[in-house]
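Aim 2, interim progress: modelling of the 2AL-bound target.
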Amino acid sequence: MLINVINPNTTESMTEKIGAAARAVAAAGTTVRAANPTMGPASIESHYDEALAVPGLLEQIAAGEAAGAAGHVVACFGDPGLDAARELARGPVVGIAEAAMHTASFLGRGFSVVTTLGRTTGRAWELAHRYGMTGFCRNVRACEIPVLDLEIPGSNARETITQECKRAVEDDGADVIVLGCAGMADLCRSIAEQVGVPVVDGVAAATKTIESLVAQGLATSTRSEYAPPPAKDYSGLLARFTVGG
Ligand code: 2AL
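Predicted structure of the complex, ligand included:
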């Protein structure tokens, strides 16, 4: 099966990291297409970034569909464009925040999210509410690390994030840690070793969730809200997003 794993920002080094995290857990028969948009923000850490990342993300959903993808992963912790992606795709679409939170809920009574900037914590809480996870989500903690700092070799991001995870265990009573950014995927194992509780990377969790849904023959319901969008013209810079043209 082909899984389309989309980094919705345009930073290729992060896309490579995300692809490696997905391939590390993928089954023998799974091929991962790791891609990012050619237009949009270099990282997603504001509502403005998130809104403007969505058109490029939807183009990559369409490209994955054309390549025959059985399912899609939206690999940004704000789960941007998830509903729109579900309207476009035939197979299932899973966001890394929803996959990570659900996976964490299987592993303990409560989890804390450890993320990048404080300004992204409101979105993470909003997603916890949406996914029915407030009974499990003990806290959302920020490290005040900008997303692109995770791409700087030799930065002290790993140490800062590890310390925040330790505080989450001690101060929040978290049984499980959820990493709050796709750019943290490569740090998951080493942080888990140092923190001593399960640490969930959403890229791995979402990739395995897609494999599971596809293996069960399950795809998004098209009964109502997630039916394909109605045909209509789009104009100006968005003319190529015209539906049914
Ligand atoms: C993210 C993420 O996963 N990718 C990105 O560009 N921003 N999330 C975050 N909380 O900063």
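The longest helix spans residues 47-66. The mean pLDDT is 97.
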